[in-house]
UniProtKB/TrEMBL annotation, chains A, B, C, D:
PANTHER family: BINDING ROSSMANN FOLD OXIDOREDUCTASE, PUTATIVE (AFU_ORTHOLOGUE AFUA_2G10240)-RELATED (PTHR42840:SF3), NAD(P)-BINDING ROSSMANN-FOLD SUPERFAMILY PROTEIN-RELATED (PTHR42840). This is Oxidoreductase. One of its GO terms (biological process) is NADPH regeneration. GO terms for molecular function: nucleotide binding; oxidoreductase activity. Residues 4-123 form the Gfo/Idh/MocA-like oxidoreductase N-terminal domain. Gene3D superfamilies: Dihydrodipicolinate Reductase, domain 2, NAD(P)-binding Rossmann-like Domain. Residues 134-257 form the GFO/IDH/MocA-like oxidoreductase domain. Pfam families: GFO_IDH_MocA, GFO_IDH_MocA_C3. One of its GO terms (cellular component) is cytoplasm. Keywords: Oxidoreductase. SUPFAM superfamilies: Glyceraldehyde-3-phosphate dehydrogenase-like, C-terminal domain, NAD(P)-binding Rossmann-fold domains. It comes from Caballeronia fortuita. Belongs to the Gfo/Idh/MocA family.
């Protein structure tokens, strides 16, 4: 069986990780092209990746007949149109989360995809591919905690004292759509895809006053009420002192499972004047390095062997829909019915 | 300085613990009387406590001139009237939490207390006296985590498969007033007593369908929005599989403190076919055994030395007020403004 | 049943703790006398303890007819002669560990005790009375780990940068007899009192060069080989950076139990720039505060109810015998047969 | 720079992992040949690896001119002669630990290697390449714990109830040479390669009586005394109930570092009737999966870029020398001078 030939679009910090994975670490994948409007990023590619075609323009990439699939690590505002263009060009698509900040765009992608049933589109909810989350999912599925009825989940980034991210806040969709969207997807996945009925959310600016200009926050909490009484309680933050601290708990009638309660960097513990301690994962890169690789392997297995990933465009649309409702609930100070 | 002479009212399971503490373990306290309408409880007292006067009737207890203070471990519905009667009889009062399920009753107690400024009334928010919570409070006060802006706190009881507690649910005030009231008080205490502006709450029945009859739930979550953007996220449950799991987290701009993340029973860890594990505290008795003792010591120190406890009737009223709002938010499915 | 009336001898740092326990916290005990050759210590007693008789001279204490039992917290070099004198005066005896640094002295105490079978003597191997150690012992006895065949145990003190303890090193018996004696006793207790056959020990001076003068060390390790192949591996240190770190592991054919793997000060965890961490118990006082109390309760229960403690003078002698052998093994650089 | 072309010898369980790493996961490596006398293993290779040359005979492998380096995952008894033959054939050599059970053989390899200074030989002490061990090493080197003076380290395998390994015990060199050799190497590495002066060891058969026939044990402990008072305390076991439990502690004058204190399988924690717990790594494969990969990357980096690994044949010889001394100490019941 021949390798899947990928063209990647977007070579920023995360894009480079994906490119390296596709180039070196995913059996069955071949990275044959890369695309970036930024000259410096194309130079990085030509110096650091195996020989490949380089494009400044995404439309040119799509005309490259040697490419089976595109891998999008581009700004969220471009996702929908780029996916649609790729489908029309006959390419499979992997796209970083979120699918879009806009429901109509999500629907347009879903509609276009329906016209190309032989092509696969996968949105990169990377946490589903982390070994610990996978173990938790399997344990829940095997009945280890009885009937799961509640998820608590958080996505908390280490504080960047420079507040560099504040510049990107206006286009990020806000804290809930940028960060909590992961937890929304996890909650639905771990609870068996129940339908959301109502959400509530609150937030505050703990440190970065610059967010006020775009009505964003640096700490936010929310509740999702699903049908059948299932619940999710979410927390997102950009101001952690100790590191990137992503954790998720699934509570069932016969037990509870927690993933990542201590964001330990590795297996080292230190005993010194500061007490008994461990270092923490500084960013989501270190935390989900393996998951990014497994995610790519899963997409290749889907394309080559038809092995389902359990992740659909409808899941991605639902994460956006709930995220938007959380933002609205925060803005309005009241529950939002779905 | 002479010992404070106590008369205790209520000798149920928790009352007996309090009685034993007052009788044997609190220097400066003397347990001289006990009161219970239940003959079996009075017999327990005469067999297990040092010689003391026994009363079936609370009013008789109050006429006992040898008593300086009463210690109430009676049903919540009696708290307010019993406190008022004790104040009128010239006694100091310790009373188990919550002060009352009714705001008007809280106000009546506060009004009566204002007429007896030389008498002390303390409501037993026992967690404030736990060594670990005290350490967390002191660390926050010392600036260890910068400015605290959020509390996450839970009161989760081990599931009672017999659902015995369902019988008492109709008079308990419901999950939020019975359990979350602790977390409400902790959140206010740890955040510096900010004023609550709005609450939201959700809940579900995971196991005990019998609660439906009184519109109660066995798992509930809630959000409290305080002035200045401070937040509290609470969880209460009656269905934990592993034990009594009370934990609280304070998140600040320079760090976070967690109390009780693993409800370990003691310092023993076991490595066997079930993995690496520790037993958990089965009930709040084991978890807060020391705190009940320190609470009594603190009340005696208040009476003898005037040492303030930092806990006022207004705090108790506020906990009830917020708890009522959470119940209403759950019932109405919408945010409640305070 | 009347209270046991105690006279305590020795009011140093540890003696004061014992005195306070006997005075206030042990139902059934009454502290009626105290003895110290140090005027300042007697003054402390008269200011801080309930009214009691004070003696400068131990022999005078023994003539006090109101005393049922003496409680010795005196220098190790005095233990044997003071126990013998107390037995001859018809008093029960509690004595801090170790019984003696000299085997002949141990035997003299055992011989004298045999002449007073109605009197109890207990050596304070306090760890046996710690709730976690007790839980571990019970679990082992109940077969939780199958057949226990190995103990690893350590007594590690926080480093005292002033090296104050170096002054007392010459009379302490050395690291193995002063610290490891606890672990020796625990190993025997947890393994079912097997007979030791051979020991080996090594040591080093990591920090406190002043110990060289008396041939002592500040870090030492040892192995005890018992009959039937049971093993103990011990570690003692005076130079820990993080706190007092006492831990013990029992390894069996079906699992292992560890006590105190993380010497956490309480239930608080901190997440900040130093990582995820907990404070550690600074000294054995904080770690074993409860155990000292339970130890006193157990001795009173022995005297009043005849409830056995499971701790004999032969156990104390054996701990000394093995400790002496470890010291010799270290000095000679070779295994010592027992 | 062209890829390093490898021929692997030995395709048992561990050999297959190495082969898959070289085939798919090590940039700069190419697996071009494999050798096994077992037909079934060669068939596995032809079905599961990229196209390569297959040999039944090791000497034939060495005549394959397309091979730059051999990778030996063969029985320990063959290591020395196979390394020597490979060097004579002009091949670089990676060889699984231990180098040999015999010091004369170690010396013969070292002598032969001296005749081929342009060829590299690396013995696979895989733990040095584990991310956590590497972090510990770097932290020690950076002074995080002051001067390191003691290592405690263990290699403990999960019990195999079938005792399958007993069959291989006679040729394994015994517990100390098979398991502790890892800890010996780690202790030397972490303490700065001090010279060993004296060792002591003890052991027992806890479960597998079949080991008695070859004078082996299933649990063993040992002490290594290095020059300058540095110490190592080792433990090896084949009978753990909970999983593969490899851990190492480095104790210094300003702190201590522990690697792997809880052999957690991943980031999942479970709260249920068994308490709060985590699953454990079942075998060294899961524990050191990443380290095997990094080890291969390090060897390729050595061959291509001359980047030193810090691991020499003298280190491998020293591990064998100390392991032999530990076995002798156990057999003789006395300390062995080195």
């Amino acid at each position: 069986m021949s390798a899947v030939r990928f063209g990647i679009a977007g070579l920023g910090r995360l894009g480079r990780r994906h490119a390296e994975n596709l180039a070196w670490r995913v059996p069955g994948a071949q990275l044959v092209a890369a695309c970036s409007p930024v000259a410096e990023e194309r130079e990085w590619a030509s110096s650091n990746l195996p020989a490949l075609s380089l494009y400044a323009d995404y439309d040119e990439l799509l005309t490259d007949a040697s490419i089976d699939a595109v891998w999008l690590v581009t700004p969220t505002s471009l996702h929908a149109s780029q996916i649609i263009a790729a489908l029309r060009a006959g390419k499979h698509v992997f796209c970083e989360k979120p699918l879009s900040l806009d429901l109509a765009e999500c629907d347009a992608v879903i509609d276009e995809h329906a016209r190309h049933p032989h092509l696969h589109v996968m949105i990169g909810f990377v946490r589903r591919f982390d070994a610990s989350y996978r173990d938790a999912f399997d344990s829940v599925a095997n009945g280890a905690i009885g009937r799961p009825f509640m998820v608590r989940s958080q996505t908390c980034d280490k504080n960047d004292p420079d507040g560099f991210f504040v510049r990107f806040a206006p286009t990020s969709g806000g804290l809930f759509l940028d960060c909590s969207v992961h937890d929304i997807d996890l909650a639905r996945w771990l609870l068996g895809n129940p339908r959301a009925k109502r959400v509530y959310a609150s937030g505050t600016i703990a440190i970065h006053d610059g967010l006020r200009a775009c009505n964003d926050i640096d700490n936010g909490v929310g509740t999702i009420e699903f049908e059948d009484g299932r619940l999710a309680v979410l927390y997102a933050s950009r101001t952690m002192a100790h590191g990137h601290d992503t954790q998720t708990e699934v509570i069932g009638t016969a037990g509870a499972l927690a993933v990542g309660r201590n964001p330990r960097a590795n297996r080292v513990e230190i005993a010194d004047v500061h007490g008994m301690r461990n270092a923490c994962t500084p960013t989501f890169f270190e935390r989900f390095e393996d998951a990014f690789l497994r995610e790519a392997q899963a997409f290749v297995a889907l394309l080559r062997d038809g092995k389902p990933t359990g992740l659909t465009l409808d899941d991605a649309r639902e994460a956006t829909r709930i995220g938007i409702a959380m933002r609205r609930a925060y803005e309005e100070g009241g529950a939002v019915e779905l």
